Fold this sequence. Notes:
Distance between the termini: 78 Å
Number of helices: 29
Structural class: mainly alpha
Largest sheet: 5 strands, mixed
Keywords: Ubl conjugation pathway
Domain BTB: 62-130
Strand order of the largest sheet: 2-3-5-4-6
Domain NPH3: 243-519
Helix content: 40-55%
Mean pLDDT: 75
Family: Belongs to the NPH3 family.
Pathway: Protein modification; protein ubiquitination
Shape: elongated
Amino acid sequence: MWCEHLTRICCNGGVNSLVSDFNESEGVLLFANMKFMKLGSKPDTFHSDENNVRYVASELSTDVTVTVGDVKFYLHKFPLLSKSACLQKLVASGNEENNDEVQISDIPGGPAAFEICAKFCYGMTVTLNAYNVVAARCAAEYLGMYETIEKGNLIYKIDVFLNSSIFHSWKDSIIVLQTTKSVLPLSEELKVVGLCIDAIATRACIDVSKVDWSYTYNRRKLPEENGNDPNSNGFRSRPVPKDWWVEDLCELEIDLYKRVIMNIKTKGILSHEVIGEALKAYSYRRLPGFSKGVIHSGDVFKYRSMVDTIVWLLPAEKGSVSCSFLLKLLKAAIILDSGEMAQEQLVRRIGQQLEEASVNDLLIRAGEGEDVMYDVDMVQKMVKEFLMQNQNAGFESEENEVQEIRRPGILTDASKLMVAKLIDAYLAEISKDPNLPLAKFVDLAEMVSCISRPAHDGIYRAIDTFLKEHPGISKSDRKRICKLMDCKKLSVDACMHAVQNERLPLRVVVQVLFFEQVRATASSGSSTPDLPRGLKGLNIGSHGSSRSAATNPEEDWDAVATAEELKVLKGEIVALRTGNRIGGSERNGGDGRFSVDRAAISKMKGLLKSKRIFSKIWSSKGVQGENSGSDSSESLGSANPEEAKSTPSRNRRHSVS
């Protein structure tokens, strides 16, 4: 009868505030009729006074006092001893001294849980819900309220309640699991924790077609879900998402959350993307400041354990979580001083999907005591992991070539190009740090120099930013950093910026001017011829390693181009271009494309060998001295005020995006 009544109540009204009429049990009713015949009716509740005393209103005087914590219960022996093996022993052992007083200091759930058990013994109405059922179950276990003592005892009935109601309710299962922590380790020994975890995991893995829209209690329903949307026509237009359960599980502490996720993964039903989304939601909810890549002050040990656990729970499949989320986890792990193993695992995972990252994601603050602003070494490790995917694929392909071709770890040209552009942009950002060593910049840039890029505007922008923030670097260092750039691969806008850039060495400006002229006169405009033999000596070996470049004895070409030099060179190129357009077409009957190119190259050779241009350069240097890369054109001392006025200013220069 009780089970049917309980099932009916659960189905109609839920179990969040369930009232179970345990006194309808035949055994309890018989007991009530036998013991309280003099009263005309059995007691229905406990009363209390201002002295923390709980008692039963009855004409029958109490004969035992049970002290639980700081609360005293004045009760009757017979109803208690008839259902509790523990109280039988306690009363029996106290006969010699004082059998009217019993001390229970360590009962699970404290006075509230004991009161539930005592009410059951008296046959009173007991209110059980998801918040107190575990404490009541553990208290009943402590008091020994087994079936061997009396049929239909409290332990049996609570177990029926848990299995028939609580474990079938999504919300109540989560609440019950949270309450188990207050009664550990007994709740673990009674397998309540394990049963609750399995119930939650099972519910999370069911087919979404069987999930009702009341699936979560942490989400506000949309108008169409409540039937208030006039456009819904009474139908629910939104399907239940596969990750419907992730927000509710964020209520759990990390140790219980870990066990639930492990149980879900073990079942092998949900995809790794859904599990990854659950971990992401938990991180954003439980780690303060995580969304901004920081961790606010608090319990460092707690947050460190949380981050380490989330890293450990990450699905092994690539793409189960975003690269941005992995980088936020890495930043949190660094701030919280997590173990090297967790950080190495994150770096490895980030490297495998580095093409998804953004520059902001990669801006990892350097540790305390460091001179530099950002941790460039960590990014180098990520790039190394990214590039190693091809190497690993090459080693494995010897054993199984057919399957290796389909292996997702092999890098595509598109992903490599994305990473190259990402690192170029990252270098431009970190170059704003005046303390960034040149070696760190060059080493990171050279790691992606093997990746072919159609344009070198990104690395040019990074180089220009570095030179701007580090005006005092030597000629050799300036030459070394400029070798990272291929002048032939600069866009028109970048060339326009470079030919007016007073931070670049003179040889770089000459190369840019030459390639710009050749590109302007080439018929196709899609490819640029190599430097003529006469200019080979000026080639600074761009797009190559600075260690293998040949040394040019003409050190003056490595000096910074002055405003006067830029002006003269630009004027010569303009004159060269104008002359070629006129003479070339006349000499070749209107089609002088090939002759124009040859004329341009020949004229450029003469330009670079011309004593007139060299005398201008040398005289300019003699007046100004060697320029160390000042950022402002006004700092360039010019002998002619009119020439200084004509020098392009920084405000009018084209920025490279």
